[in-house]
Amino acid sequence: MVPDSLTRAAYKLYGDSVAVSDLKQFADRGHTLTVDNGWRAVADHVLDWLAEQGIHGSGPDR
Questions:
Q1: Dihedral of the CA atoms 53, 2, 33, 61 (nearest 10)?
Q2: CA 15 to chain centre
Q3: In the structure, what pLDDT confidence band is assigned to residue 44 with cuts at 50, 70 and 90?
Q4: pLDDT of 53 above 80
Q5: Taking a C-beta distance cutoff of 8 angstroms, is the pair 41, 48 a contact?
Q6: 56 and 50 in contact (C-beta within 8 Å)?
Q7: For residues 57 and 62, what is the distance between their CA atoms, to the nearest angstrom?
Q8: Where are the alpha helices (DSSP H) in 13-61?
Q9: Which percentage of the chain shows pLDDT scores above 90?
Q10: Cα–Cα distance for residue pair 41/31, rounded to 1 Å
Q11: Is 30 left (phi over 0), alpha (psi -120 to 50) or beta?
């Protein structure tokens, strides 16, 4: 797990970038959050964020 202060410091480094970025923390989740139990909630959040950016995927569920 990464301390909140480090996560926020890394996010701030993107402040001057032209890249679109956002910070979403998933409580009690480690680096394997995309393969652990509950991964679907993480994936759904990512897909929703991408859709908000106008990026739409294709697949059987979307």
A1: -10
A2: 17
A3: very high
A4: yes
A5: no
A6: yes
A7: 7
A8: 39-52
A9: 35
A10: 15
A11: beta
